[in-house]
Amino acid sequence: MPVASTLLMVRPAAFGYNDETAANNFFQHHPGLDRNTLQQKALTEFDAMVDLLRSHDVELLVLEDSKEPPKPDAVFPNNWISTSPDGKIFIYPMYAPNRRTEKRDELIDQIVRDYVVTDVQDWSEFEAEGRFLEGTGSMVIDYDHEMIYAAISERTNLSVLEKFASANGFQAIVFLATDKEGHPIYHTNVVMALGEKFAVLCEEAIEEEWELIAVKQLLESTGHTIIPITRDQLYAFAGNMLEIKNKKGESLIVLSETAMSALRPDQIQQLQSFATLIPVAVPTIEQVEGGSVRCMLAEIFLQRKIKEG
């Protein structure tokens, strides 16, 4: 399981509550604050996260959001773009129309200019058909074993998932994950996180026993120690974490302070046996837009180009 040592982040220019995504993201909460206040709070949290990661020698590619048109979710680039260790860039079909403007050519061009890219695949055409696949929110990808774990929802369409998996040599492991009210959970990376040697998994959310057994067997057979979390911990974004490596090759697990405080001491001890935990305070971003630190990080697996001269 490759772990990224370079991460893409997008600094928001118009953060705010997104009514279009709230239709099926039950983790969002209306803040009752004006957009300027929300933007400033989000910027403070974003900049502090950047500083914290850089203080741990993490390589970051921080790109600026554009002010027009306003993009309230621009802070979550992993939903519209991802990269792969074999040099590919993927652009994804997005559920909310006002999130599709996050896919800016100038951002893609900058990555192509600075990194070795073998292919750019744009899957956006499925938006016109009302079918979506929101990047590494929808898919938790094990590149080493060519597997994709995916919880089906309005944002993770089965047919698009299967087309994507087939086109890129992956096996799709599909299941249904539900919240406390029985609604499909909007993104797979809220339900589970996959590291080199561990997997955080909300087993309670996968109610079909045979689906849960299949997921657990595959995780264990590929060398992952499963760390179960509860639905209550899922609501605190305890499944929304990411293992990364810094410039020294040290393994780190980035998670929010909300997630950290929800974990039991034994779970924290288990995670610490695999990597150093880096808790980040992003309460405004979590509460208003229903996503946490993993959603803010798009992994860059690409090789940086060698500059001439």
Summarize, please.
This protein is an alpha/beta fold and 309 residues long. 30% of the residues lie in helices and 21% in strands. The strands form five sheets. A three-stranded mixed sheet has the order 2-1-15, covered by helices on one side. A three-stranded mixed sheet has the order 3-4-5, with no helix packed on it.
CATH topology: L-arginine/glycine Amidinotransferase, Chain A
Structural class comes to alpha/beta
Summed over residues and divided by their number, the pLDDT gives a mean of 93
CATH-scheme architecture: 5-stranded Propeller
> How is the main sheet built?
3 strands, mixed
SS elements, strand count: 15
* Beta-strand percentage range: 15-25%
Radius of gyration over all CA atoms, rounded: 18 Å
Low-confidence runs of at least 5 consecutive residues: none
Into which percent range does the helicity of residues fall? 25-40%
